[in-house]
Design goal:
The protein has nine helices and 13 strands. By secondary structure, it is of the alpha+beta class. Strand 7 and strand 8 form a beta hairpin. Helix 1 crosses helix 9.
Length: 362
């Protein structure tokens, strides 16, 4: 009888052999971070550092936050706080306080998320430009991705493009700017805006009928947003960022709670996302600065989260007060730093480009 205990198929992340496998990616990670900081320094940005503990972790209905209890010294009372899902609220409050160009490489947390492209704890690169529109931060994104790619290409040898899952993407050439409506037309043959007669109440039945025509299964209880994402994930997202990075702009207003309404078309908002090889890399806005409208959207998101999941997160009244005080017209973006490193190094998953994963063993 063999009494030798079974050997784990994969040794712990801290073992020398596994660390050695990741070290080239980790060195590239540091070089990429340095290149990003150099770009921001050249653009007169200030690096900031805001608290992870917040009254509200973010109001997006489908995000799940980590909760914790704050105790002050000599006080038995506790206060419920959350680890932020983005440093957005605090950074916008700095804009309201007078800052003009700021960035942050922020530890960020989202619960119930783990896959090749998701981690419960990750690094978000977030930056804002006061007095400028979303195309200015989109241009920043182009420059930063090119800088990161150049650093990684220098370390990996003669690579000319990103490659993932059999797809390739050249970040050096011209990027593809495509509206969400244009993407639905190109990849689904659907006139998306025709299903949005009212910006706040899209026509669920019209979109359902269009989806069924291209053999997308629709449930009787699926709302307009659910149908939208079924189409998006099945027919559109896998085709974005192929050949060149895609900047997908003009998202439906009902799906952009922190972005301002497009002044040329009330059905859409100044939101855009960046895709490389079918992977979402960044999410940016022409920022909403109207405190009354922001409260209305927060309340709508809280009600939706309550209906879907049986709970909601509190509204950050200090954030709304900062908007009311006078946050300037601004644009900002959040970019998944770990995903950028993953794409630059050709790694298959985020765990190959982070120093240590969140513990999974009980």
């Amino acid at each position: 009888m063999n009494d030798t205990p079974p050997v784990s198929v994969q040794s712990p992340w801290w073992r020398p052999d596994r660390l050695a496998e990741r070290l080239p990616n980790l060195h590239a990670r540091n070089s990429i971070a340095g290149a990003l900081r150099a770009y921001f320094a050249g653009q007169d940005f200030v690096e900031v550092d805001t608290p992870a503990l917040q009254v509200s972790p973010g109001m997006e209905p489908h995000l799940t936050a980590f909760a914790t209890a704050l105790r002050e010294p000599f006080d038995d009372r506790t206060r419920l706080l959350y680890l932020h899902t983005s440093p957005e609220f605090a950074m916008k409050m700095l804009l309201a306080g007078g800052m003009e160009r700021i960035f942050q490489l922020a530890k960020t947390w989202r619960n119930a998320e783990r896959s090749a492209t998701h981690q419960p704890e990750f690094i978000m690169l977030e930056w804002y430009r006061a007095g400028q529109g979303w195309r200015a931060v989109a241009a920043d994104c182009e420059a930063l991705v090119r800088a990161a790619f150049s650093v990684s290409a220098g370390r990996r040898g003669a690579i000319t493009d990103f490659r993932r899952d059999g797809k390739s993407c050249d970040p050096i050439g011209e990027w593809d700017y495509l509206s969400v409506a244009g993407a639905f037309d190109r990849h689904c043959g659907i006139d998306l805006l025709a299903t949005i007669p009212d910006p706040l109440n899209p026509d669920r039945d019209a979109l359902a009928e269009a989806a069924r025509r291209i053999d997308i299964r629709i449930g009787d209880d699926d709302d307009w947003e659910t149908i939208f994402f079924r189409l998006f994930l099945d027919r559109i997202e896998p085709n974005l960022g192929i050949g060149a990075p895609t900047i997908l702009f003009d998202w439906p207003l009902s799906m952009a709670a922190l972005a301002r309404q497009n002044p040329r078309d009330s059905r859409v908002a100044e939101r855009f996302e960046v895709f490389i090889c079918g992977v979402e890399l960044a999410n940016g806005f022409g920022e909403l600065t109207d405190a009354v409208e922001q409260r209305r959207r927060f309340e709508a998101d809280a009600a939706k989260k309550q209906a879907l999941y049986g709970h909601s997160y509190p509204i950050d009244e200090d954030f709304l007060a900062a908007l009311a005080h006078g946050m300037p017209e601004s644009a900002g973006i959040a970019l998944g730093f770990d995903r950028l490193v993953m794409l630059c190094t050709g790694a298959a998953s985020l765990e190959e480009v982070i120093w240590a994963p969140v513990v999974t063993a009980c």
